[in-house]
Design a protein that fits this description.
The complex is a heterodimer of chains A (about 725) and B (about 160). By secondary structure, chain A is α+β, with helices and mostly antiparallel strands. Chain B is an alpha+beta fold and about 160 residues long. The radius of gyration of chain B is 15 Å and the shape is globular. Classes of the chains: A alpha+beta (about 725), B alpha+beta (about 160).
Chain lengths: ~725, ~160
């Protein structure tokens, strides 16, 4: 999209308001601009999101980041279907940080698996509005009723008459913007539920796709950053005389967060880094030792605010014949996106322009504004393709650092972190330890009690927003932090992330007590794919499996008795039982485990088949059934289930971030391993047919995989693993 | 220093020890080859040197000066994508897409040596290339598909 069109769109939205729900707005100033623009360019800018070009191609503004989850294809599908054009006529452009694009609780953010649900009606309404304007123009030309015309394949059709959209744009710009355009019914969908390809594949296989790390702007220089050995360490002494003499080096600059070596080329800065000697202070996290912290959490018996209290769990446990359970644990985890954190910034005269692979241009504005002491409106952010996201790219620390460097060298700067910085600069998935008890009396499950300890993302976020926005007017800080927290809030409990997935469990235990307690330290934690659900699924599904084992019930059967009749949970379980062939016992040496979880309004259940090979857990096959409402792009849903299962398996089996004396012990993919091709199980996914509104897809496939594997190991070996990573727990079995 | 990249001799003004990755990206503007780990652990930077896969992040320019370097940008012909690239599209492999250039470059060499591979052979050949999105099941399918497409190519 040309710069001039961005400017024009901005003009339109000033005329008509901004939220996605108002995307079909127009009239007044907007219409005058629309006509002027159409006469000049032949383009119909129907609304903030959709422009039909004179060529008939459609420019679609997507206000979400493409982090691999397929949102560009998803949004293009919604628009192409409703507008009546082939999918390959739609060109996706990513929205910048315009306030009009803040459609998620006053922010523009990609997270919480919300994109499709959020846009499903409004974006189709925007497309339907454009369609009706085009049809109105054609009907006027033909002097026939608009109701007798249809939009098909990029044309308006009436009987044997056809006219291409591109030939209608100037006329359509003069048509009134429909107040309530008619949306297609599900039976009329031509692309929704049927599209089987991605709009972004081509550039990603021929090397032309532009990620943040590929950004080049005029007069740009490059920066290499060295961060301290401990999070938050400040350089106290920097010796860089030799580095400054290296070819291409422009400056070596000490900041409170580290040292930047700036050179014409990145390879020059990187080479010069070898000549920089730095002494650091002790850092900001009090020599945190994660092993000691986890041990203390494991042994802790405390009370916390009550998140849920049904019946009388305490009495049920007191009167039980058997109490099962123990402490379920999970470590810190890094996101380890394959594209390291990077950003390009140009800071001049109190303004900043930023190009970044960002999940939230709004948060990027906030981070940069805070770092520079300027207003958020003085920061413009352009969003590029993201080489993975998983929550990490909502945090814009790298954008702030790039802006500070640019301010000092007075030129545009691209800052590219090393893999080592990417892995050690925190914002991890928090550590958890949950003490859980399940009561059984007369062979029946009579109650469950859980006390969840975790480092609080909510508290960390408050700190984050407080820190990021400290220079801004207080009401704005309140608005932004409140909005961000509200976005992820799924219940009324204070620490929504720690217990999400437990507080709202669909299991009907009758007696169920859930409490939580935050563990506080200064290492910031944040959102990691599926957030609290990445652990709470493991906690709940492990305990339910323990209850099934001790009551000698089939794990499917017990779950069914605990779940509401006619629920989507039961339907998904029934489908999975068939898909996995559960009634046929597995071959000798293979163990099968099941787990389910409800998150992001989507139900997913999985069966894992495992064996022990050379002393390690090996996952051979995973069956997965998902109910995510109407399937807009079925193959992308399958891909996201595969993706979340593999991402979750890496975490379940092998990954952990540990700190010794404040120093993160994992620095690259050798010590923070990902599942590799030869370790990747066969994955069989079934999407339950549904006509309900679409719900989350990017994250909900993750929570069931760890408990499915742990439950399979139990069924194979009789060993109950309650601590992730599971390979380490399996190796240490019986030791603690 | 002289390099031969995608069939063309080029001159790059870098010291011999400079990693090939950065010469490609910064001196030649060939940004399809990606930086992932800097230590030959992930495979995102894989290119061909004299027809064999090489991790360009740990390959010094001085060591490949006289050799034929092929990057993702040079894989296709003017007329068409390489069959491996085509197979990647047909099987909807890419998600974020960041690792895929390296995956494709690895697969191209592998299929030259093993034109009709088994799953186990694919796993062996591709297991050193990391994908954080977890596209492995689709890569496996796409390698099979590419093998079919390559078999149909005129020799």
């Amino acid at each position: 999209m040309s710069v001039s069109r961005r400017g024009f769109l901005h003009g339109v939205l000033i005329g008509g308001g901004g939220a996605l729900a108002l995307a079909a707005c127009g009239g007044g100033n907007g219409q005058a601009l629309r006509i002027e623009h159409a006469d000049k360019t032949g383009e119909l800018t129907a609304n903030l999101y959709i422009t039909v070009l004179a060529t008939g191609r459609v420019a679609l503004i997507v206000n979400k980041a493409e982090i691999g989850q397929g949102v560009s294809t998803g949004y293009a599908t919604l628009v192409a279907d409703e507008l009546g054009v082939p999918l390959d006529h739609v060109d996706v452009q990513f929205a910048g940080s315009s306030t009009a694009m803040r459609t998620s609780a006053n922010m523009q953010i990609t997270g919480g698996s919300t994109s499709t649900a959020e846009a499903f009606v409004p974006l189709r309404r925007a497309a339907a509005s454009a369609r009706e304007m085009l049809i109105a123009a054609a009907a006027a030309q033909w002097r026939v009723p608009a109701a007798d015309c249809r939009a098909v394949d990029g044309h308006v059709v009436h009987g044997a008459d056809r006219v291409a959209f591109g030939d209608l744009t100037k006329h359509a710009a003069r048509m009134a913007v429909p107040e309530s355009p008619r949306l297609k019914t599900a039976k009329e969908f031509t692309l929704i539920g049927k599209v089987d390809r991605r709009v972004d594949a081509r550039g990603k296989v021929d090397g032309t796709a532009q990620f943040g790390i590929d950004v080049v702007v005029p007069d740009m220089v490059n920066a290499y950053a060295i961060h301290g050995p401990v999070f938050g360490a400040k350089p106290t002494k920097v010796s860089a005389d030799a580095a400054r003499k290296r070819p291409g080096v422009i400056d070596v600059i000490a900041f409170p967060w580290g040292v930047a070596i700036v050179a014409a080329k990145y390879w020059q800065a990187r080479a010069a880094a070898a000549d920089v000697q730095i002494e650091w202070d002790a850092g900001a996290i009090d020599a945190l030792d994660s092993g000691a912290m986890q041990k203390a959490m494991r042994e802790h018996r405390g009370k916390g605010p009550t998140a849920r209290d049904d019946g009388d769990a305490g009495s049920a446990i007191g009167r039980a014949d058997i109490v099962v359970g123990g402490v379920y644990e999970a470590p810190y985890l890094a996101h380890a996106t394959l594209e390291p954190q990077n950003a390009t910034a140009s800071v001049t005269a109190g303004r900043a322009e930023v190009w970044a692979p960002s999940q939230s241009p709004t948060l990027a504005q906030a981070f940069v504004a805070d770092a520079l002491g300027i207003g958020m409106d003085d920061v413009t952010v352009h969003v590029t393709l993201c080489g993975g996201g998983f929550g990490r790219r909502a945090i814009a620390d790298v954008c702030a650092q790039a802006a500070l460097i640019s301010q000092r060298v007075k030129r545009p700067v691209k800052l590219t972190w090393t893999r080592e910085s990417d892995m050690t600069q925190a914002w991890y998935r928090p550590v958890y330890a949950a003490r859980v008890e399940g009561a059984v009396r007369d062979g029946r499950v009579t109650g469950v009690r859980m006390h969840v300890l975790s480092q609080s993302i909510a508290l960390s976020s408050k700190k984050l927003f407080g820190a990021a926005l400290s220079s801004l007017p207080r009401p704005l800080v309140e608005m932004l932090s409140g909005a961000a927290l509200a976005l992820f809030a799924s219940n009324s409990f204070g620490d929504v992330f720690a217990t999400e997935g437990l507080t709202n469990t669909p299991y009907q235990f009758g007696n169920f007590a859930l409490s939580a307690e935050p563990v506080q330290n200064k290492l910031p934690v944040a959102f990691w794919r599926s957030v609290g659900n990445s652990v709470t699924g493991f906690i709940m599904e492990g305990l339910v499996d323990e209850l099934a084992a001790v009551t000698k019930q089939d794990p499917f059967a017990l779950r069914r008795t605990l779940l509401p009749a006619n629920s989507r949970q039961r339907r998904v379980l029934d489908a999975l039982e068939k898909l996995a062939g559960w009634s046929t016992p597995p071959p000798p040496g293979i163990g099968r485990g099941v787990a389910r979880h409800f998150a992001f309004e989507t139900e997913v259940a999985e069966v894992a088949e495992v064996s022990i090979v050379d002393g390690r857990i090996r996952v051979h096959r995973v069956y997965c059934v998902v109910d995510c409402g109407l399937a807009v792009n079925p193959d992308i849903i399958v891909a996201q289930m595969e993706s979340a299962i593999i991402f979750g398996l890496s975490a379940a089996l092998d990954q952990e971030i540990t700190l010794v004396a404040g120093v993160v012990q994992q620095t690259n993919y050798d010590t923070f391993p990902l599942i590799r091709m030869h370790e990747c199980p066969e994955i069989i996914v079934q999407i339950l047919p549904s006509e309900e509104k679409p719900t989350g897809v990017g994250e909900p496939g993750l929570p069931p995989i760890a408990p499915a594997v742990a439950n399979a190991v139990f069924r194979l070996t009789g060993v109950r693993l309650r601590r992730m990573p599971l390979q380490k727990a399996w190796h240490a079995r019986g030791a603690s | 220093m002289k390099l031969v990249v995608n069939g063309k001799p080029v001159e790059v003004a870098v010291p011999a020890e400079t990693p090939l990755l950065w010469a490609l990206r910064e001196e030649l503007g060939l940004t399809g080859t990606k930086f992932g780990c800097g230590r030959a652990l992930c495979g995102a930077c894989t290119v061909h040197v004299d027809g064999l896969p090489k991790r360009s992040c740990v390959t010094a320019c001085g060591d490949v000066a006289e050799k034929a370097i092929l990057t993702i940008e040079g894989l296709r012909t003017e007329a068409a994508l390489h069959p491996v690239q085509q197979a990647w599209i047909e099987e909807n492999v890419p998600q974020c897409g960041y690792c895929q250039a390296g995956q494709i470059m690895t697969a191209v060499v592998f299929l030259r040596a093993v034109p009709n591979p088994t799953d186990a052979q694919i796993d062996d050949a591709m297991s050193a290339n990391l994908c954080r999105c977890g596209t492995y099941p689709r890569i496996r399918r796409a390698v099979h598909r590419a093998a079919e497409l390559l078999a149909k190519e005129p020799k």
